[in-house]
Automatic annotation (TrEMBL):
UniProt keyword annotation of Signal present: yes
Name listed for the protein in its UniProt record: Secreted protein
Keywords per UniProt: Signal
Record flagged with keyword Signal: yes
Signal sequence segment: 1-32
Source species, domain of life: Bacteria
Amino acid sequence: MTSFFTRLTAAALLAGAAALTSLALTPATAQADPDARATGPFTWCPGQYEGFASGSERPNWDWNTCHTYWWSYGIPGNVSPSVWEGALPPAGVPLENLSRPPVNCGLFYCQDPGGRYTVDPRFPAP
């Protein structure tokens, strides 16, 4: 019976050592700005409500055509302090801080639930 407990203890110690080693040897990942966030993409077209951004937040764009844009926080926008115009979100926002607007999914099937991105939309799929 003693050899059983000896083997059990040795196995537990070996598993614990392997777990600690895997945590210690995990490579660090670089982060851009941990507070930078972006939400979108949204689309605005002529005839829609123009007051979504007023004052200094009002985008400097052609109000006679449609625009795809992102709300950006922590990274200055390219058409106003917090609006980034373009199909792709601004660079410098970590993937875990990119979020999509929720989508009306219907009753039974939801093709795009919104929420966090799982693949970075700034890079083409392989």
